[in-house]
Every structure is written in structure tokens, then in C-alpha cells.
Design a protein that fits this description.
The structure is a single chain. With 399 residues, this protein is mostly helical. 78% of the residues lie in helices and 0% in strands. The longest helix has 30 residues, at 132-161. The termini are close together. It is found in: Cell membrane. It is a multi-pass membrane protein.
Length: 399
């Protein structure tokens, strides 16, 4: 398989275009979920809780997503996920009560777990090893572009349709993504399994027992990077408000950080493919650690902008690293189930990061909380540096 001619352009329609649409739909509604909850009678605290339901939906659906993908295949799983997300958007469009709206938000997280697992599995099987990191980083970059475009599309729609316009944009994007996924060809060539093995692998529990060293080693690094990434989106606006910047200025800083993050995914993937995963994983975490350490030392627009751009650069060079490492270490037999466990670790980190930050802010200060997250990022750099090989060599048993 790795010796056949291959171009990432062949993945454009198969995986990247539905991922762009999916990201656009998600980006369109993410900024206004809290506002929608407030409009349905929620308090500020309850509205914040509703926002977290996206993560909760993803967390509880990773194992079912693995079972679904194993049973029906990647293409059908992506189609089902996009359709399910479309239905979730409908609950944002109709004048539903808060409880029904919360169900719709949870459905978005559930759909994301299935869609992301299926597309990662598809790329892991379809792309030769020497292109894998570029394929995965491009996938992460395309999703970022979609999420970046989404709020602008939603703003235009809301000028005519009110707040429901954002959900119309989301529903249309998800529906078109579902149609595109219907045309994705099923994989005809897959990595061969070892003699005597079943491609579906054993149970989730047996795979976890077989792969426990990887899940507790590099997997802990995945928890760290996910915690830092999710917290990064919170600390920038909080610190900007803490030093007296207005909302427009904070948004500008956040936008510049996101732009740097979005634009450098492909070079990072190429470095991973040519030099090895560790050459990106460790700098990604180290740079974010430095940026987070410096953030509480900033006191104005210029210094915070510089630090925010450094934080965006650190996160950007790690585009696709979680998916790439998951694909690298996933066994051929039971790959979707292993990747379901991998995403479970990632989602656990994503949920734990903001909770840890909130706890530290409550008992100490925002600056202390940011420095703790910086320490977690440094820990992640150490874990990746210790467990990931210095070269592009693969462990025995990987495809």
C-alpha cells in the first residue's frame, strides 16, 4: 500500500470537503449556544452548563462510535453522524424549551464523536504511512478553517433570520456534508491483519488491556495536550478582561491567535512525516507552556497580542498530532475501537482542563490557574519526549 502513487488531493472530496462543511456548521453555532440558552430562560450558570453538553455528548459517545464504525464502516458512520447533527440543529431552529434545546446541543457532541472517529479511521486506512501526518494535520487544519468561517456565515444569516439563522447555517452545512459523505467510496484496500486475527478485534476491554502501556504512556500526554488546548480558548478572553481590555480588542487578539493557528498545519505535518512525530509533539507543548507562563506577565494590548500569537503558533504546529499518534499506535485488528479509547482520553482532557482552571481560579487567582496549565503543558512535553521515538520508526505490530 505504501508503495502505490498517492496524492493528498485524492482526499479532498473524500474526507476534507465534508470535514470543512462539518467544521463550518459547528463553528456557526458554537458562539451562540449560550445566548440561545439564555433566550430560553436559562440563568448565566445554566447557560454555561448547556455549552459543556457538546463535550459531554462527545465523551459519552466515543465507545458507541467505535462500535458503530466497526459494524457499519467509516462512510456510513460519517453519513449517520452528519444526519444526527442536522437533527440537533433543528432543535436550535424551532422555538423549543430549554430541555429540548439541551438535548440538541448534546446531539451535536454525540455526532462529533462518531464523525471524527470515522474520518480518522478512514484516513488511517487510506493514506500510506509516509503521508499520514500530513493527511492528519491537513484534516485538523481544514476543520479549523471551517470553524473559523462558520461565525461569519452565521452573522450574515442572523441579519435576516435572527439568532435561528446560525442554526440554519449549521443545519445546511451538516446536511450538505451528509450528502457528500454518501458519495465517498468505501475502502477497497486495507492494511492486512495478522494470521488468526479478526479485523474487528476483540472487545473494548480486551483492546484496552492489550494496549495499556501505550494508553497510560503517550495516552497521558494526549490528556495533557487536550486539557491545554481546551483551556487555551478560555484563558485568553479571561485574561484580556482581567487587564481591562474591551470585548472588541479581546476578539481581535483571539482572531490573530486563531489565524496563526490555522495557517501552519501543513508544514507541521511534513515535519512529522520526514523527521518524526516527536519533532512536533514536544515543541508544540513546550511553546504553549512558555506562552501560558508569559500570559499572566502581560499588562496591555501589545504584550498580550504577542503572547497570544505565540500560543496560536504552538497549538498550530501540533495540528493533527493527536490523530496522527492515534493512527500510528492503533492495531489493525480493532482499529476503530482503539481510536475510540484514544478519543476518550482526548475528550477527558478537554473536559478536565477548564474544570481545573475554574477550581484554581476559585481558590487562588487567574494567574495561578494559567501557570498551572502551563505546568501541565510542560508535563505533556516531557511525556511525549520520553515515550515517542526520536525517529519515524514504528512499533512492532502497527500497520
Amino acid at each position: 500500500m505504501s508503495e502505490q502513487p498517492f496524492s493528498l488531493r485524492t482526499m479532498a472530496v473524500k474526507v476534507y470537503s465534508p470535514s470543512l462543511l462539518y467544521g463550518l456548521g459547528l463553528g456557526a453555532v458554537t458562539p451562540i449556544i449560550a445566548l440561545s440558552a439564555l433566550g430560553r430562560g436559562a440563568s448565566v450558570a445554566t447557560a454555561a452548563l448547556v455549552v459543556t453538553l457538546v463535550g459531554v455528548g462527545s465523551l459519552i459517545s466515543n465507545i458507541p462510535a467505535a462500535v458503530l464504525t466497526t459494524r457499519f464502516g467509516e462512510r456510513i458512520a460519517m453519513v449517520a453522524a452528519a444526519g444526527w447533527a442536522s437533527l440537533g440543529m433543528v432543535l436550535g431552529i424551532i422555538p423549543s424549551n430549554l430541555g429540548l434545546f439541551a438535548v440538541g446541543v448534546t446531539m451535536l457532541g454525540m455526532a462529533g464523536a462518531v464523525f471524527n472517529l470515522a474520518r480518522q479511521t478512514y484516513l488511517a486506512e487510506a493514506v500510506p504511512l509516509q503521508f499520514r501526518a500530513r493527511a492528519m494535520s491537513s484534516l485538523g487544519g481544514v476543520m479549523r478553517i471551517g470553524v473559523f468561517i462558520g461565525p461569519f456565515a452565521a452573522t450574515l444569516a442572523m441579519n435576516w433570520l435572527g439568532i435561528a439563522g446560525a442554526y440554519w447555517v449549521g443545519m445546511v452545512a451538516m446536511a450538505v456534508s451528509m450528502v457528500v459523505c454518501l458519495w465517498i467510496p468505501d475502502l477497497t484496500a486495507r492494511a492486512p491483519v495478522e494470521a488468526g486475527q479478526n479485523r474487528a478485534g476483540g472487545s473494548m476491554w480486551s483492546i484496552a488491556k492489550d494496549q495499556w502501556r501505550i494508553l497510560l504512556g503517550i495516552g497521558l500526554g494526549i490528556v495533557c495536550i487536550s486539557a491545554v488546548r481546551s483551556t487555551r480558548q478560555v484563558v485568553l478572553p479571561l485574561w484580556g478582561e482581567n487587564i481591562g481590555l474591551d470585548a472588541a480588542t479581546i476578539s481581535l487578539i483571539y482572531g490573530f491567535s486563531g489565524a496563526i493557528d490555522m495557517l501552519i498545519f501543513y508544514p507541521a505535518g511534513k515535519v512529522m512525516d520526514t523527521r518524526g512525530r516527536v519533532w512536533v509533539a514536544v515543541p508544540c507543548m513546550a511553546v504553549m507552556s512558555v506562552a501560558l507562563f508569559l500570559l499572566p506577565l502581560t499588562h496591555g494590548f501589545a504584550t498580550m497580542l504577542a503572547v497570544a500569537m505565540l500560543l496560536g503558533f504552538g497549538n498550530g504546529i501540533g495540528s493533527g498530532i493527536v490523530m496522527t499518534l492515534g493512527a500510528d499506535y492503533s492495531p489493525v485488528a480493532g482499529r476503530p475501537k482503539f481510536l475510540g479509547l484514544w478519543r476518550l482520553l482526548s475528550d477527558t482532557g478537554s473536559m478536565a482542563g477548564p474544570v481545573l482552571l475554574a477550581t484554581l481560579v476559585a481558590v487562588a487567582t487567574l494567574g495561578a490557574g494559567v501557570w498551572m496549565i502551563s505546568g501541565i503543558s510542560l508535563l505533556g512535553a516531557g511525556l511525549f519526549g520520553y515515550f515517542i521515538p526520536r525517529t519515524n520508526r514504528r512499533r512492532m505490530g502497527a500497520p
